[in-house]
Structure to design on (1315 residues):
């Protein structure tokens, strides 16, 4: 055995990179930065595409058939009849695949040709992204995409900091801080130093873990540890940083973005897969029939045919010496002849028609004005034409959150100050709430020179309170303006904020518009402008936010007054308030419940006045704890707990994470249709849960919300086991053991009974309780359901498996059955954290996880990586065998979109990566409702109806040869004219069935949305399955038998009035063919529910077209059947035969249709019958809640959610985050020093310049660099505000009683009116 070389070992176990050394890096053959998502090249397209197409059984079947037709000895039909349609199908599909791949090539080219500045030979040159190599040192400028995964070397900011936005990776638009090694900061932007940098990096191999990187830098004989905080990933955008330099570690397909992108999969519909299975069955049936007829032919030739060789001579290739041998050879040839004659049971025109129908349906989606978004001028687009009917069978929807359900916009919506609620607009005449719409006039803030034109607030009473110097409102907004980690900068004379979380941006923006403007900060000071007057505060401490504390505090000093401002989760703040505030706490809690019930994100605000002596003592102990080497975190937390106590409640903020329009209604409708919705988001737990309530995916009526957050397999398994027991307890205590029949008249004729029960959530009324198994309910409601079919459900009430819980329409008046009274809001929901999801997806736990998830109404997976999203989708596809749809708007959703059966991309704020990888693109989530319930259902309904009729008409046509074979010695003689056989599917019957497949609809689009349960047949594949196929085959066989036997019986020994013999083969064939066309016309007329001009033209036109073409072919071209039909039509026998035959075929169909309509009407039948009569199969439209119109309900859950990240407080107080470090940190504030006066003068001059340039309508505070989500699993933070009353007074802030309220509170506390 030879020893492995060093490069081989490095390649197996680790990755070695040397900066600026191409020769060293080349030996490892690392991938370059070129990416390729396309499937074909110019040279590989034809062979690969044909290979892919012939993997479809139908195409391979027709190829074999074409080869047989090229053999004259066995073929009675010209090969052109198969060759032209086959070539047409292959060409149509190839053109479509080529177009799709060209789009991928264009996308790849656009990315690969982006420009990047790269160091080459000591000079900075501009190179394409595709030319960037591992080990290159590259420069990034502000607002530029990162070309490859890069180790940060130096930046333009102090302390080696830079800020990035990771929307392409995880959908988050808030800023994240990265920091390079202190040892490499000195490299700066000096190109000679950077070119001479020869550090060697030893790191992990390429992987898909976005939040993990392990490596070591060896430089100058020293080793430095590398982690994820020093890595910039491809797809990120550099923000608020002038420039930075880095060395490429991973390039191209090795980057974490590409590792998470997933592979492009070939997608086919369930109908396609069923057709493949059916084709196998038909081929086996065809082989059996051909074998049977071959045996029959051999026997007939051996017994009878041998005696008629003078009349029916054998072919010269048939051995005539030994009769059994000759008969056997004839039988063998007849086998192949019948295979050709009977091939029309699956004609190639079926696939041509299917592709045409899908193609036209795609255009109907593209042209739908109801899915047009005027704001972005975007139509819905079907980016593939092969999956339309799959839209009508979706069982699971996997949705991203940010940018998909939400708008990436946070707005200050409501608040509560000193026990009084603000934000609702009340009609003073009636005392009722006024619905807030775009038409309602918002409050005018133009008197404030720093107001933002985009800010909207409708309750004028709050602005009046501020302007009248109402104390509590000033404290509230002063707290918002001071307690945060926002950075301010002036750009082109406009004051702009850079916030680390969108929540903070919204709160600071609200304070700004109400006249409390945050102006600037240094490491130890904060300056705000209150009603035009500057106030400067000394920043003593920032007690930073983290997931455990769920709050943030600042300690400020102005003059002799020291104050602590705190903001955080309501339950955390309430536990730290001083006594004597019961009335204020109760009123504020009522407001909190109201805000949470409206889906708003709430934070509680509090303050504490400190004496100088107390603060100094506390400060000494805090410094001692900070320097402790033993249990430092625990000691600091204890110190923080000490000072964050005995606080005075200031109020509550309510921020709306703005949902896209119509999201709650769409989700409710899709759930009522029987579709399960899972939200897979990279956001933190609290934020994800809050959005779940906001969009009504979660409701307060749920029996319980299970949270899986275990860190190990054992913890997760324990939690899943507990949740399973909770579900068992819930159902055990429902009174299912009673005999439900006792409640009804025993004489009533009922189907088997199925009992479903709903329970009031009495045990949910306790606030702030952990999710424990519910006790036996005090009140239970028993409801009953009678179903035609009682099916076992594997996992309980699983809507994705079409449990009839969502099921049958009210039938009390139609079928004498009891009404269904099902509370669709009860049940369970599951919330899974990303680190726990890793264990849930493991083989040992995935079954238990699915068992719990399948019994939950909704599932939310938070803090998940892009690859985890795809794994969840794959799990459901594999384990549940369910049809899945994934919808998202960012690059982090691409893998999920590719993994699902249907991928839908939203043209959002995060680029077009999701759209380019999707099968369908829409502008807003609400259009998904119409895409599925209207276009999806219609496409599935039309395709199923098309297939049922198509198989019927072709079996009716083809099996006539089988019956005729009994009378022609199994000789493969055809009943019909060969030309009729060739053009039957192409000219005579193609257009009517195409019109059926394109325009057919059972109910209108309005009713399709209004009655979502119309969607459920698609979930169960009820409209086309093996049973429906067999029914179509039997119907076709019966039709062919009647079609052949009645004319045969009439014409067998028939003689016309003129004495002409009617019993010739050509006359019989012409008569049967004509009656077949007439029957097809009658049958499709009965099939059609929705008549358009196109239907009339194609159906009746095809009948006329048959006679025109028959005349043209026989008389103009000179066909062999010339005169046969003409002579037959001159005789009354023909017309009577046709009438009797068609009536015999149509009468049973009519009778069966009327029987179903009268005895077993479907929901669509009832809707058509009762026209506009409402059938309440779902909750009323009150579930629609937009930003301006919310349900007035209260919730006992906390509305806390704060997308903030720990660490920014330390960056601020250390001065690392500042662009310029101040020369002097220690100074007395507010004493009129020269430095302070100069600062005031500068600010005032900037204000004057801004007003002169009329820039007061500047940019919205919520900067697009902030994001709705953050990296922590749990978030909570309270807004902190610094009180700048300047008087140092501590009076008037006592117990929160009536003396402490707003002057308007006693007479104008309209919060309690009519709520």
């Amino acid at each position: 055995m030879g020893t492995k070389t060093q490069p081989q070992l490095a390649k197996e176990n680790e990755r070695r990179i040397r900066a600026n050394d191409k020769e060293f890096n080349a030996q490892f053959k690392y991938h370059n930065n070129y990416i390729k998502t396309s499937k074909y090249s110019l040279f590989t397209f034809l062979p690969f595409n044909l290979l892919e197409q012939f993997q479809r059984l139908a195409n391979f079947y027709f190829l074999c058939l074409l080869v047989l037709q090229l053999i004259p000895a066995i073929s009675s039909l010209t090969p052109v009849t198969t060759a032209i349609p086959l070539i047409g199908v292959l060409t149509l599909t190839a053109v479509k695949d080529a177009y799709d791949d060209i789009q991928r090539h264009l996308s790849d080219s656009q990315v690969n040709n982006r420009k990047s500045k790269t160091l080459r030979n000591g000079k900075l040159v501009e190179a394409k992204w595709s030319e960037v190599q591992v080990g290159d040192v590259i420069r990034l400028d502000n607002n530029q995409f990162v070309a490859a995964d890069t180790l940060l070397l130096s930046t333009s900011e102090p302390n080696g900091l830079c800020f990035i936005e990771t929307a392409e990776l995880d959908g988050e638009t808030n800023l994240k801080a990265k920091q390079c090694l202190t040892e490499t900061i000195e490299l700066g932007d000096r190109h000679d130093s950077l070119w001479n940098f020869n550090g060697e990096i030893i790191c992990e191999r390429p992987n898909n873990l976005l939040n993990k990187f392990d490596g070591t830098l060896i430089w100058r004989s020293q080793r430095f540890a590398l982690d994820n905080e020093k890595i910039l990933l491809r797809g990120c955008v550099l923000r608020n940083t002038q420039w930075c330099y880095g060395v490429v570690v991973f390039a191209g397909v090795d980057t974490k973005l590409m590792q998470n992108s997933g592979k492009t999969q070939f997608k086919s519909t369930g109908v396609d897969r069923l057709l493949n299975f059916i084709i196998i069955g038909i081929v086996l049936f065809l082989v059996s029939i051909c074998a049977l007829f071959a045996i029959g032919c051999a026997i007939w030739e051996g017994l009878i045919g041998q005696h008629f060789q003078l009349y029916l001579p054998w072919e010269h290739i048939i051995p005539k010496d030994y009769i059994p041998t000759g008969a056997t050879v004839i039988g063998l040839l007849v086998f192949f002849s019948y295979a050709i004659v009977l091939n029309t049971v699956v004609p190639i025109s079926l696939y041509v028609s299917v592709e045409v129908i899908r193609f036209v349906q795609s255009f109907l989606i593209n042209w739908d004005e109801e899915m047009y978004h005027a704001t972005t001028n975007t139509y819905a687009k079907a980016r593939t034409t092969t999956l339309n009917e799959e839209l009508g069978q979706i069982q699971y929807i996997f949705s991203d959150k940010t940018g998909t359900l939400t708008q990436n916009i946070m707005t200050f919506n409501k608040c509560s100050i000193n026990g009084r609620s603000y934000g609702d607009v009340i009609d003073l005449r009636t005392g009722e709430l006024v619905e807030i719409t775009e038409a309602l006039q918002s409050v005018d803030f133009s008197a404030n020179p720093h107001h933002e034109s985009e800010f909207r607030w409708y309750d004028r009473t709050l602005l009046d309170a501020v302007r009248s110097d109402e104390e509590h409102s000033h404290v509230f907004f002063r707290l918002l303006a001071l307690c945060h980690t926002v950075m301010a900068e002036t750009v082109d004379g406009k004051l702009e904020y850079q916030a680390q979380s969108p929540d903070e941006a919204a709160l600071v923006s609200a304070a700004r518009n109400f006249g409390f403007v945050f102006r600037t900060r240094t490491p130890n000071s904060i300056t705000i402008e209150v009603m035009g007057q500057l106030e400067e505060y000394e920043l003593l401490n920032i007690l930073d936010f983290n997931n455990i504390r769920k709050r943030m505090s600042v300690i400020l000093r102005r003059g002799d007054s020291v104050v602590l401002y705190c903001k955080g989760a309501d339950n955390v703040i309430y536990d730290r308030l001083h006594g004597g505030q019961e009335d204020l706490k109760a009123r504020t809690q009522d407001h909190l419940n109201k805000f949470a019930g409206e889906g708003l994100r709430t934070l509680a605000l509090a303050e504490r006045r400190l004496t100088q002596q107390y603060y100094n003592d506390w400060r000494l102990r805090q410094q001692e704890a900070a320097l402790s080497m033993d249990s430092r975190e625990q000691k600091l937390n204890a110190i923080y707990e000490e000072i964050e106590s005995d606080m005075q409640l200031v109020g509550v903020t309510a921020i709306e994470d703005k949902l896209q329009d119509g999201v709650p209604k769409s989700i409710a409708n899709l759930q009522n249709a029987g579709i399960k919705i899972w939200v897979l988001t990279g956001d933190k737990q609290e934020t994800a849960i809050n959005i779940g309530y906001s969009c009504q995916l979660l409701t307060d009526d749920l029996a319980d919300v299970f949270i899986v957050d275990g860190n190990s397999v054992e913890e997760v398994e324990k939690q899943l086991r507990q949740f399973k027991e909770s579900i068992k307890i819930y159902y055990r205590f429902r009174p299912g053991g009673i005999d439900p029949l006792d409640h009804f008249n025993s004489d009533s004729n009922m189907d088997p009974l199925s009992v479903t029960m709903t329970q009031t959530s009495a045990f949910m009324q306790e606030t702030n309780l952990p999710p424990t198994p519910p006790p036996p309910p005090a009140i239970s409601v028993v409801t009953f359901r009678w179903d035609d079919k009682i099916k076992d459900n594997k996992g309980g009430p699983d809507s994705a498996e079409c449990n009839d819980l969502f099921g049958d329409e009210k039938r009390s008046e139609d079928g004498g059955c009891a009404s269904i009274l099902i509370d669709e809001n009860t049940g369970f929901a599951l919330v899974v954290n990303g680190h726990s999801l890793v264990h849930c997806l493991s083989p040992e736990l995935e079954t238990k996880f699915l068992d719990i998830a399948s019994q939950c109404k909704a599932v939310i997976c938070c803090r998940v990586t892009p690859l985890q999203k795809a794994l969840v989708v794959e799990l459901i596809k594999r384990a549940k065998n369910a049809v899945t749809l994934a919808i998202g708007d960012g690059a982090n959703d691409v893998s999920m979109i590719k993994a699902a059966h249907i991928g839908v991309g939203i043209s959002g704020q995060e680029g077009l990566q999701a759209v380019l990888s999707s099968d369908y693109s829409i502008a807003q989530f609400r259009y998904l409702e119409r895409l599925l319930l209207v276009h999806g259902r219609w496409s599935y309904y039309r395709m199923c109806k098309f297939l049922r009729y198509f198989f019927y008409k072709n079996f009716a046509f083809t099996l006539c040869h089988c019956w005729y074979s009994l009378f022609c010695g199994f000789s493969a003689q055809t009943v019909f004219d060969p030309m009729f056989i060739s053009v039957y599917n192409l000219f005579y019957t193609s257009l009517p069935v195409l019109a059926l497949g394109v325009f057919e609809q059972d109910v209108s689009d309005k009713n399709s949305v209004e009655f979502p349960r119309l969607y459920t047949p698609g979930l169960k594949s009820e409209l086309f399955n093996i049973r429906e196929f067999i029914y179509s085959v039997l119907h076709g066989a019966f039709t062919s038998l009647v079609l052949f036997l009645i004319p045969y019986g009439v014409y067998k020994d028939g003689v016309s009035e003129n004495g002409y013999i009617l019993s010739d083969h050509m006359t019989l064939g012409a008569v049967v063919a004509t009656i077949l066309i007439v029957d097809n016309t009658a049958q499709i007329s009965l099939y059609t529910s929705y008549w358009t001009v196109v239907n009339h033209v194609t159906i009746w036109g095809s009948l006329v077209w048959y006679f025109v073409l028959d005349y043209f072919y026989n008389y103009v071209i000179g066909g062999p059947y010339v005169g046969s039909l003409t002579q037959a039509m001159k005789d009354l026998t023909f017309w009577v035969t046709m009438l009797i035959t068609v009536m015999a075929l149509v009468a049973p169909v009519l009778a069966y249709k009327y029987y179903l309509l009268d005895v077993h009407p479907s929901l669509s039948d009832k809707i058509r019958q009762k026209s506009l009569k409402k059938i309440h199969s779902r909750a009323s439209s009150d579930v629609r809640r937009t930003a301006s119109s919310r349900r007035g309900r209260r919730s006992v859950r906390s509305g806390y959610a704060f997308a903030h990240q720990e660490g920014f407080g330390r960056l601020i107080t250390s001065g690392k985050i500042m662009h310029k470090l101040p020369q002097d940190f220690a100074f007395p504030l507010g004493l009129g020093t020269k430095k302070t006066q100069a600062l005031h003068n500068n600010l005032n001059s900037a204000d004057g310049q801004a007003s002169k340039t009329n820039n007061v309508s500047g940019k919205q505070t919520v900067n697009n660099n902030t994001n709705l989500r953050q990296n922590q699993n749990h978030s909570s933070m309270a807004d902190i505000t610094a009180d700048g009353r300047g008087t140092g007074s501590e009076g008037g802030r006592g117990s929160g009683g009536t003396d402490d309220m707003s002057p308007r509170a006693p007479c104008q506390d309209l919060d309690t009116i009519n709520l």
Summary: The longest helix spans residues 927-965. Confidence is low (pLDDT under 50) at residues 1-11, 735-825, 1175-1192, 1220-1315.
